[in-house]
Write a structure and sequence with these properties.
Elements: H1 2-38, H2 43-69, H3 79-96, H4 105-132, H5 134-137, H6 141-173, E1 175-179, E2 185-189, H7 191-215, H8 230-239, H9 241-271, H10 278-302, H11 305-328, H12 332-368, H13 373-401, H14 414-425, H15 427-442, H16 447-468
Antiparallel strand pairs: 1-2
Helix pairs in contact: 1-3, 1-4, 1-6, 1-7, 1-9, 2-4, 2-13, 3-4, 3-7, 4-13, 6-7, 6-10, 6-12, 9-12, 9-13, 9-14, 9-15, 10-12, 11-12, 11-14, 11-15, 12-13, 12-16, 13-14
Length: 472
């Protein structure tokens, strides 16, 4: 019975990641295309909006982390916020992919800006407490690895669902016919298709988050952190040097992945001329992601976490290099095969990052003398948003310079098609290599040093338990 309860709690926790990634997948994979092609937003406006939103996230995310650290309810620290945040994020997602008041001009820009920032804030409400729960399940590193792997399996499932099915669903519910490059009729996704797909993802987000909240329970409790203080929060972040290193190498590699996801919609519409072919491309990614989820546990049996992570990044770079060759030679079979290879490395990399962040929490406790789980894990959401910002800057600068026109679709100039292809296949592997160099030279939480940190954290926990029980 206990084993069934154990499995149920782990699977229940992982299910929550499906909903979160459905929302996030719609945001980073399809929002840019919706804003430029459907709403007709200028790249210059979006280049201004994204960094401003990230400045606010830099304040909002650690603030939310501190609030979670100081939460005390019968449901625990994390689950109440996961549920509240998911409901709010679902509502905002639908409004973000719609224009219910038929606004235009400055009013439309203001509306998009408010919804854009609101999505980030509501995502923070759910995402930070969700991933902060990992250390609350167990202090055992192997158990943490298992929990992180389960969550990443479901996270990959959510990514796969939205990347594969969203183009199919949007085509099925509503399309608009436009004139293509050679004067032929081309079907493209319209406003109705985006909002219906967003609504489906929103409903799924609330459902899966509710299941996760109902089936999980915190088993490792920690004392409340200090009351929120901007000064104190940023002192914590600054003091944990390995958190800053983690932020840097993870942000750069994630930006490479997000760039592919965000540019793929442009590539199959503008370069290939058939948005429906994105589903096949995304299926290759989904298959690779599943293999990658299975690969990391195998790699860690024969090598250290450090070497396994390095192997994952090398696999990403190799896969994307082959994908670039396929794109420039118009060999789409090669593109799909190599995208699958790159996705294997990427999926394995994402799991390892979650495990590393739990190690960063332990390192912070030993170095600073207290735990700051949610503040530390709030940086995961922030680095994802920063990675998306890097993606957005590269995307909109390139579209602007290459004379991209959202109304032309595959009748865009060759300069736009070249820029989109380079963004999809050339820039990401460069980012992976840079990330690999930073990780290999600056991240020190591995080997005997990490083992000593884990031992110290375990000893600290035992001392706290004895003190709580009145033992000497």
């Amino acid at each position: 019975m206990n084993s069934l309860k154990y499995i149920k709690s782990k699977l229940g926790y992982g299910v929550g990641a499906i909903g979160l990634d459905l929302s996030y997948g719609m945001f980073y994979s399809f929002l840019a295309k919706y804003l430029t092609d459907v709403l007709g937003m200028k790249a210059s406006f979006l280049l201004i909006l994204t960094p401003i939103a990230r400045l606010w996230d830099g304040i909002n995310d650690p603030m939310m982390g501190t609030i979670v650290d100081n939460t005390h309810t019968k449901m625990g620290k994390y689950r109440p916020w996961i549920l509240r945040g998911s409901i709010l994020n679902a509502i905002v997602l639908v409004f973000l992919f719609s224009n219910p008041f038929n606004l235009s001009g400055v009013a439309l820009m203001a509306y998009v800006a408010v919804m854009y920032v609101a999505w980030g804030m509501s995502n923070t409400l759910a995402d930070i407490p969700y991933w902060s729960m990992v250390p609350s399940f167990t202090r055992d590193p192997e158990e943490r690895s298992l929990v992180s792997t389960v969550a990443r399996v479901f996270s990959g499932l959510g990514q796969g669902i939205v990347s594969i099915l969203a183009p199919i669903v949007m085509t099925a519910v509503s399309v608009t016919t436009v004139m293509g490059e050679n004067g032929e009729a081309v079907k493209v996704h319209d406003a109705r298709s985006y909002v219906i797909c967003a609504a489906i993802c929103a409903i799924a987000l609330v459902f899966f988050s509710s299941v996760s909240v109902a089936t999980t329970k915190e088993t490792v409790t920690t004392e409340a952190g200090e009351k929120f203080s901007f000064k104190r929060t940023f002192e914590i972040i600054k003091a944990n040097d390995q958190l800053l290193v983690f932020m840097l190498f993870a942000m750069i590699s994630n930006a490479g992945w997000y760039l592919t996801s965000g540019v793929a919609t442009y590539y199959f519409d503008v370069v290939v001329g058939d948005p429906n072919k994105q589903a096949t491309f995304s299926t290759s990614q989904a298959v690779g992601s599943v293999v990658g989820l299975l690969m990391l546990p195998v790699l860690t049996k024969i090598m250290s976490k450090r070497k396994a992570y390095q192997t994952s990044l090398v696999l990403c770079a190799v896969g994307y290099t082959g994908m670039a060759i396929g794109a420039f030679t118009q060999t789409f079979i090669l593109m799909n095969i190599c995208y699958c290879i790159g996705a294997i490395g990427m999926s394995s990399m994402f799991i390892a990052q979650t495990i590393f962040l739990a190690d960063v929490v332990d390192y912070g406790e030993v170095k600073m003398g207290f735990r700051a789980e949610s503040i530390t894990f709030s940086m995961k959401g922030f680095l994802q948003k920063m990675a998306y910002t890097i993606q957005t800057i590269i995307l909109f600068v390139s579209l602007g310079v290459s004379k991209y026109d959202g109304s032309l679709h595959n009748a865009n100039p060759e300069s736009a098609k070249l820029a989109i292809t380079v963004m999809l296949t050339v820039i990401p592997p460069v980012l992976f290599v840079i990330s690999l160099i930073i990780f290999s030279t600056k991240f020190k939480l591995h080997g005997e040093y990490m083992e000593s940190i884990t031992a110290q954290v375990t000893a600290n926990a035992l001392e706290r338990e004895k003190a709580a029980n009145g033992e000497e």
